User: Fold Small ribosomal subunit protein bS21 from Symploca sp. SIO1C4.
Amino acid sequence: MAQVTVGENEGIESALRRFKRAVSRAGIFPDMKKHRHFETPIEKRKRKAIARHKQIRRFYRNRKKQF
Assistant:
């Protein structure tokens, strides 16, 4: 949970900016997007397989650049 304490002479804009930064560092946005809709086990497997395939493609593409 992201928390920000507002100082005595601090404006609300700067506190809000610090809060947004803390939320993004905590990784709350990707988690929120992931839980926005229910995902069936089949959809989850499909999503993970696609991510694995992309990761493998990226690995081999970067490997070619090294040589």
Remarks:
- The chain is about 70% helix and 0% strand.
